[in-house]
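#onboarding

Welcome to the new folks! Below is a worked example of what a typical request in this channel looks like: someone posts a single protein sequence, and someone else replies with the predicted structure as tokens. Don't worry about understanding the tokens yet, we'll cover that in week two.

Example request:
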Amino acid sequence: MTGIQARRKLIVIILLCVAVGGALLRRFAEPASTMRDIGTLLMLLWVPIIGNIISWLVQRLRRSVAPEPSAFETRGVFTAHALVELTLRAPQLPSEDIPIPEGEHFCALVLGHEGFSARWLVPSGQSLRRGQPHTLQVEFLAPTVALPRFPRETIFRMLVGESFIGDGRVLQVADSA
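Example response:
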């Protein structure tokens, strides 16, 4: 628990005790007396904390929900639909110029105003440097929709998140797709 969390917890406990003290004061005070009004005010100090408790409960409920698997995870084994030449753009900051590690990566390949979900693999034991062309295999999430739009020599852009991070062209389309 961080220092801020500990202080917040302490504040909640103190305000709860003040509210309970206000309830007791209100219970045993004479009707229409100043002490009864003070007890009411002490009980009202607890109201802002209720929002924090509700927020905490909502965060707990959200954490317990397992993330949905991506559409590619349900498909299983990687099946190459196209062979592409991809050049990743150099980052704006030199400190971010790190090699792309081996493994599976997700993106959208963009033609004009249309984007097609895809994944690509960096072969085992290799990494990709930015600014250099690389030949990679790509699998489309919906190959029946995407492949007619990606014939040989088609130029495209690669979108990850909200940024275009690369440019490429189709070298070959798989026959089995």
